[in-house]
Task: structure prediction
Amino acid sequence: MAKEILSIQCGHLSNLIGAHWWNIQQAECHSQEIQHACMFSEEVNAATGIHTYTPRLLLIDSSGNGRCGGYHSDEDTTPAWDGTVEKHPLEPKKGLKKCKLDCDIDAGAWSSVLHVPLSRRSRLIIPESSVSTAVDFYPFGLQVWEEKKFQSNVEDTLRYFAEECDSIQGFHLLSDWSTGFGALATCIAELIVDEYASKSIISFPVSSASCADNNVAAVNTCFALDGMVSNTSLVCPMSSSTEAVHPWYSIAGENPRVQSYEASAVVAAGVLDTITLFYRCVSPLSCASVCAAAGAYGRKLGVLNASLPLPVNLETPLSSMWKQHGGLHALLHPLTPFFPNGEEDILWSDMLSLRGVAPNQPLWPSTDPRFAFHPRLVDLLAEELAAGPQRHDHYQWSTSVVEQPLLLYPPSTEPSPPANVCSPERLLQLPVCASLQSRSGAGQVVAHLHDKLAHVKLRTMPVFTASAHLEEDSFIELSHRLNALYECYRTSGCSED
Result:
């Protein structure tokens, strides 16, 4: 049985991706290949005796973004008074009805797409006294973390989920690193390191593609990256970009920008569900082994790639189909922001997760059906990995093959998602291939952010320079640490002997 994993989500985009991810996991709950107990816990309602399976999840958002959808509580909400009850709805506060997030993308609450019941302890809302336009800035997260009551609530929630586990193997940390939630996630990572020092932390920072040229977002991202590299075991950034949306979903309607944002969140959730199969299935791998392979020698910045859906045709051998596209690596699109796609670099490790290939799928033009399908598919993946980018002398690779396809609910094209958004009729079954790589090209991601930081005029952003949490030397030290991280990815600058 797989060991347990605790999940933390910080920010609107992270909670939107997380909502789709939990929907996917619920749809796959009948799969015998995936150990769902590592992500879900069982709760029993003391009053009704009903068993409910809820995520081991702490999600954090600002007031007004999460609403109350998808919230599960053990308490009976029926009022004891049996007389006449008058309801007076609260007037929504200005600016909180919808979330202006990540560089002015206007999106509704993530709870409108979440159809998985949550534990009564899962939701943690930032106090309204702290919510303002400052949420867009890194010092915002540091300021929120200073509130002792908020910090205590985080500690108590993590301890509650940890104490019900038999053996924790690690933590998932999703965060909006281009906003103030990146600072909050860094503080939570420091807490986890202090309380659970032996456990692995895999961080999945996410950002909107529209923030690429935003100076404030660039400074936020630099600070968040530095904090996550220092306090987590592996950092796997993802960008909510239009390029990640494949032809299975066409962007149309009145607001294609928002729909692209929603669709890319669905893609990101599908990739997360696929790449984490390494340690969510019956497998010798764990969070710690994945982090050791993908984050060795100080290179903690992992590169995520995916093909969703993976081209599969029962009438064409898989090897021939991939060859037509230039090989399997040519089908994998990078989801890592600022990654220099198309440039030659050195590959240190490659972890490839493949799902949804039917057992009757022909692999080579001539295949002897007497041989077992699973080992032959692993052999085909080994051939594809050998034909991939230039490999280092100490190159390591591993594969995960699961017959279960990705069960995905496509994003709704309606402004307000219908009640049947997660009905079985809308469920898609898709073959997916995702990879987690350690490669020298990740150094260019660090170099890009370092260059952005060097060209930012800090005097034009007093919210950073005037913050009591950031000193003037903080930016100089940050620049030095990013440069040191970049040096780890220079092929001549890191000895492995």
Notes: Residues 67-81, 90-107, 250-254 have pLDDT under 50 and may be disordered. The two ends are 36 Å apart (CA to CA). The longest strand covers residues 391-402. The longest helix spans residues 256-275.
